[in-house]
Request: fold
Amino acid sequence: KAMLLLKKKRYQEQLLDKTENQISNLERMVQDIEFTQIEMKVIEGLKIGNECLNKMHQVMSIEEVERIIGETQDAVEYQRQIDEILAGSLTEEDEDAILEELDAITQEQMELPEVPSEPLPDKIPEASPVKNRPKPELVAAS
Reply:
């Protein structure tokens, strides 16, 4: 009877080992499947991104981008020139021309209006009251 119990015990231990191995294999398979699903999502994302890039390349050609960059550089250069003029960085030739024009204007005989000879009034006549107009509201641009 003891021998039979030992054989039964041994059989159950082997059964437990097999079951633990199967559970371990199943857990490994689940992990592999989950990892594969993540890889599939990454591949789908890459595929969608690649399609978007291809569409962008169809819409924007290199010539178009170069044209836009060139226009932007021209506009920046034009704005720089305006900034220099506004900042007063005139060339010496410009300043000489301005001085010559000023001299020509000051040497011309200008006709001035006649100054009135009557004395000024003591009291300033009251002007009609100005109606208060509502101030216009500033609206943010959209």
Remarks:
- The CA atoms of residues 46 and 52 lie 10 Å apart.
- Residues 7-60 form one domain.
